[in-house]
Structure formats: C-alpha cells, structure tokens
Amino acid sequence: MASTSTSLLLKSPCSPPSQTKPFIHRRYTNALFQSRTSRTKSFNISIIRAQSNVRKEDIVIVGAGIAGLATALSLHRLGVGSLILEQAESLRTGGTSLTLFKNGWRVLDAIGVGNQLRNQFLEIQGMIVKSEDGRVLRSFKFKDEDESQEVRAVERRVLLETFAGQLPPNAVRFSSKLAKIETSTDSETLLELVDGTRILAKIVIGCDGIRSPIAKWMGFSEPKYVGHCAFRGLAFYSEGQPYEPKVNYIYGRGLRAGFVPVSPTKVYWFICFNSSSPGPKITDPSVLKKQAKDLVRNWPAELLNIIDLTPDDTVIKTPLVDRWLWPAISPPASAGRVVLVGDAWHPMTPNLGQGACCALEDSVVLAKKLAGAFKSEDKLSGRCSQLIWH
Fold first, then answer.
1. pLDDT value, residue 161
2. Rounded to 5, what percent of the chain is helix, strand, coil?
3. What does the alpha-carbon distance between residue 316 and residue 119 come to, in Å, rounded to a whole number?
C-alpha cells in the first residue's frame, strides 16, 4: 500500500493543496467551500463578553471518541496543541470492533500508529456470503478487486487507547459535559460546561457523536432511524479462534448476520434485523444475548457457537441511524470557527464500512488546514480564518 503522499501530508503543513486530495471526500470539500458570511446568517447568535474567569484556548475539541482523539493526534503531530472535552469520567472504551479499509489505514500511517495497530489485528483476506441454510452465494478476495486494499477489524477500545497514549498528558479533560455554546463579538466561541467552567476558544471542533449538541446548534436535523437495529459482540477464544481471516455474511429474510476474526483469540459478530421502531432500551447483556440468539436459532451452528463464547459485557444493541446531506439544502460543516467532524456531521450505517474511515479522513484533512493557518503570518487574524475553511 502506498503511503508516501500520506506521510508528507502531516510532515509538510505548508505543502501544495494537491497533496491533500487523496483524503478529501466530496461532501467535506463542498461544505468547507461555502461562504463564511452565508454560514453565520442562519444562526441565532448570542453576543457575550469574555470575563476574567474565562479560560482561553486556541483549539477545543468536544468529544474523545475516534474522531476527537484522531483530530487531536493529527494536530499534535503537526505541532499544534488542543484541549479535548469529554463528558464521561474516562475513555469510553465499550463496544466491539470496527472495520477499517485502506483509506483508514492511510490515515493511521500518517499519524504514526498504523504499524502499532497492524501488529495486533489480522488482515482480512476476503468475504464469503451464505444463505441462512448455509449455501454459498458468493466468495471473493479483496485484493482480487483491488490490489492495494487493506482490511482489518480493530477493537474500538484498543484504537482509542492507542490514540490517547500518543497525546500529551492532560490533553483530555474528563467529566466535562457541554451545557451551552455561544459566539463572542470577536468571532471566538464561548463554551460553558455543566460544572460552570467557561472556555473561550478560537476554534471549536465538534466530535461529539451522532446526537451532537454542536450539530444541533449549527442547524442540523436529528439523525434518522433507518428501520433496523443491530446486536453486536466480541467472542473470546482462550485457546485460539478457528476461523480463516474472512468476512462471513449470512443473509435471511429481513435479517442478516456476520462474523469476522479480529485477532488470534477474538471474533467480532453482528446481527442486523428489520424493525419498525427501535423498541425499549435494554441494558442487561444476558437478555441481549438471548434475544440475539433467538433471532438466528435455526441458522448455521457456527454463528450460535460464536455468540455463546461472547462475554456478556461486550454484547450491545443499537438502533441504526444516518443523516443525508443534500447540497445547497443541508447546513455546511462549519459555521464561523466551529466545525464538525465524523459522526457529528455525517453519521452512516455500519454496512457501508466507512464510518470510522471517514472520521479519520476528516481529522487529518482538518488538522492539515488548521496547522497551516496557525503557522501563517496572520496567526488567526480575520484573513487567517478564511484560510482555515477555504
């Protein structure tokens, strides 16, 4: 896999714009090229005056998930500091795994953690698709479709801890839930936290997930439920898992499932089913595991065995949502000096396999632009704010 241009992206903050093209997906560039004046007109902006008890920061990132930590690490690699606000008391390392394709790995290489993660997770060679009665419908290898493709399932916990471990001490401020966001007279942004802390930021980056308060403040609609839910889990094999490094898909009527080896001892699985509503929220993992098994009771035994070997605390159920972004109709990704990254901007369903990859791409492209702006002669003057977003 070619990674030279990716490395140059972070090593050369003042490099020509053409070097960033491999990372910029169209929705991102369309949003960034909107007029700064037109962005601000649609918001009801409160005017505040900074006081002596307000803490001042250059860049504040709201949310310490994949997008937030990757953005902070990308900035850090370019010599730009940031403060991450996370409402939880510690890193939210729950959940299972996520699949990263070659565009995600290019970003991980660029920010210096690619090989560290490769050493822990298997490279997935291909995919096999079966019917619920076990018949093979299709089978192929990823590199037959694209020789440069790289696919690995990565534990979410490990990914977050790897990012956090590369950041300076105290880069993340935990127990810091956002209560209010306002714009000041000099275009800086005032963030007020639930504990009363007030922070005046030159740049605010919203990485606060699919229910992002910052996205709501910017005029985005709530993500829409897409009509199906998913059970997910991470099975553990103390003596080693027996499966080939392939994505295994099983299709039924109104129901699909799959599993993929993550490491020599772990296998990620999911069951996705149609449902007119998300249903009641259930937190008891043993109940969730039983419901998942009931859905596929008569399916291939290997899937049921994987679920049986799953620790209860890794089983989750989530309603799946997304948000469609329409050119000239949806709000742009940035408003003044506030910008969205990852799920806060473009939540998508997991069957696309690109949620985390696009969040990683967002982070490195935005970091490149911000680092160039911070190191310019204008140092975030009025003209420099245009450099950031354009």
1. 97
2. 35, 25, 40
3. 27
| Dihedral sign of CA atoms 5, 6, 8, 9 in order | positive
CA dist., res. 32 & res. 24, Å (int) = 11
Query: Confidence class of residue 115 from pLDDT cuts 50, 70 and 90?
Result: very high
List the beta strands (DSSP E) in 122-245.
126-131, 136-141, 152-155, 172-173, 178-184, 189-193, 198-206, 224-236
CB atoms within 10 A of CB 313: 10
Q: Which residues pair with 335 in a beta bridge?
A: 338
CA distance 253 to 257: 11
Confidence of residue 52 (pLDDT cuts 50, 70, 90): low
* pLDDT of the residue at 156: 95
Dihedrals φ, ψ of 9, to 5°?
-60, -40
In tens, the pLDDT along 156-180 reads 999 999 999 999 999 999 999 999 9
Q: Which residues pair with 333 in a beta bridge?
A: none
Q: What is the pTM assigned to this prediction?
A: 0.82
Residue 180 Cα distances to 36, 231, 296, 328, 335, angstroms: 22, 34, 45, 28, 16
Neighbours of 173 (CB within 10 A): 15
Q: In angstroms, rounded to a whole number, what is the distance separating the alpha carbons of residues 187 and 61?
A: 17
